[in-house]
Please model this.
Amino acid sequence: MTTSTTAAQLGARALPRVKNVLRTPENRFERLPDFPFEPRWTEIGGLRIAHIDEGPASADSVLLMHGEPAWSFLYRKMIPVLVAAGHRVIAPDLVGFGRSDKPADAGDYSYANHVAWMSAWLETNDFRHLTLFGQDWGSLIGLRLAAAMPHRFDRIALGNGGLPTGATPLPRAFKAWRAFARWSPVFPIGRIVNAGCVGKLSEAEIAAYDAPFPESRYKIAARLFPGFVPASPDDPERAANEQAWEVFKRWEKPFLTCFSSGDPITRGGERIWQKLVPGTQGQPHTTIRRAGHFLQEDKGPELAEVISDFIRRTPRKDG
Model:
């Protein structure tokens, strides 16, 4: 199924014009381990964005947003658990990742453009009554969506992510990662994901993370994303992220943190949310033990149970 929209339909939220697009051949996604889910497609500004949509359409929907350099394959251990609990699960591939199209020119990529693309994707599909789970860049983009369109979100669960403004120094581990992404002569996506886990991936799983990137020119987004994280007060996205923070400082809908214990980049990042967001009060915030940066890999079923229980305890209020 494919749906489409245009910049005109979005009013002032103009979409970037992309001329040169790479599309990963479909045969790269054959025989993926434990990932039988068929993609759905949405055309946004000339780009095809893929997403997984599993479970009953009328159920509470869980929006699972991946980070960099992963794709929706990251959620294969969580989707069956959430669907079995009666939830609808929606998991998109960000532009430049997974099955989604990949602009061939580095200048087409930016934090702002990714927010615009995913905002258009969300509005075009008219998803509502969402529980957002965002990790890594899935939170940097997903939280911006929730702040801009709070009427579409019933609750938020945040794991190993955040919404930096550049006002505070970034962790040393992140600076090392940013330098590696920019300067390393090789960029082995599957091995990078494997290094961010406490457990070890199989060769088939590593190959699945490599699948969207048949050549180095397909890896532009994965290379660039670390440099888009606001790291200084003059960052172009500082103002937008600060505006989003003002929304969250008044956010009274349920907000849960579920960070892992073994992530050197985001460890401790949950405290600022628990301090400033009203909706975090009274929630059973969880630390996922023996999990690294990609806690979905290390503890996917456990994390899915945490999210499912969160939804069960905080039923939506219609109207």
Q: What stands out?
A: Residues 295-313 form the longest helix (19 residues).
